[in-house]
Amino acid sequence: MSLSSVASLPPLLISPAQLASLVSSKKALRILDATWFLNMPGQPARDGHKEFLQGPRLPGALFWDIDNIVTRGESVMNLPNMMPSTSMFADAAGKHGITRDTHVVVYDRQGIFSSPRAAFTFAAFGHKTISVLDGGLPAWIAAGQDIDAQALTADPSVEETKYEQPSLLNGWIRSFEEMLHNTTLGSRAQLVLDARPKPRFEGKSPEPRPDMAAGHIPHSFSLPQSSLLDTQTSGDSTYTTLKSQQDLWKVITGVVGEDGIEKLRHDASSQGSLGVSLTCGSGMTAATIWLALQQLGINGAIYDESWSGWGRRAQNGEAPVEKSE
């Protein structure tokens, strides 16, 4: 890809003001609500799709169902949030009226939580014009932008398109075998960054999913999703936005050290190499690390099984696990 074509691409992270400008310009645009909630035992369950239908939502938005646009079944150990097949992704994109040239903007109702995963999915299938709305729906409302508050009984209709069959970009998804081999490479290993809360990384807090070991992949680093985000308040609404580039640099350097950040820059530069692997509980919040690294010109690959797979394999004695002292 030429430098001029890269410069012409929309930014991966956009503000409400930038999105409002795109909407008013009437350029080909598809806005997707990619809200997904991690429902924990003992807490009221929330449903992203139901809340989308209830409103409010961004005007003209459609719902991108992260829970259902996934690969399921024995082939993926019945794990959650696994990347869709190329045909499943293309079919879902077409049903949302998206073509390869459509500028897709994704947001969620928590600010920055599940929308990076939707953006990563599009990017991993080679969709170049993809953006995340920083702060999501709450930031859009806080900025005084128009909303659609009408309650719906069904998803809005849209003219379907033919989405050209994509290919999953090489190296963007890490397999268990690759991650296991990486644990044996010592100083030559790729860095592994884990987005789970630190108590879970350390093995001091129980996993929310059953039948899995506690702890982390050997030699990985704890980089909690929350450490990459700022909390904003507007009226009764509290939501998250991505930290500034300067603050992201400080946070990540504080975790991996000066040598580590230089290794990231060398091994995983924006020139195409993916020399860092990202993991979390189920592949969802690892995408926030991906988004943060992208702001620093660094590419990362996601271990799609994440701890849902590794922890289960470790429980069965198939994978090594570490705990912090």
TrEMBL record:
<dbReference type="InterPro" id="IPR001763">
    <property type="entry name" value="Rhodanese-like_dom"/>
</dbReference>
<dbReference type="InterPro" id="IPR036873">
    <property type="entry name" value="Rhodanese-like_dom_sf"/>
</dbReference>
<dbReference type="Pfam" id="PF00581">
    <property type="entry name" value="Rhodanese"/>
</dbReference>
<dbReference type="InterPro" id="IPR045078">
    <property type="entry name" value="TST/MPST-like"/>
</dbReference>
<dbReference type="GO" id="GO:0005739">
    <property type="term" value="C:mitochondrion"/>
</dbReference>
<keyword id="KW-0808">Transferase</keyword>
<feature type="domain" description="Rhodanese">
    <location>
        <begin position="186"/>
        <end position="319"/>
    </location>
</feature>
<feature type="domain" description="Rhodanese">
    <location>
        <begin position="25"/>
        <end position="149"/>
    </location>
</feature>
<protein>
    <recommendedName>
        <fullName>Rhodanese domain-containing protein</fullName>
    </recommendedName>
</protein>
<dbReference type="GO" id="GO:0004792">
    <property type="term" value="F:thiosulfate-cyanide sulfurtransferase activity"/>
</dbReference>
<keyword id="KW-0677">Repeat</keyword>
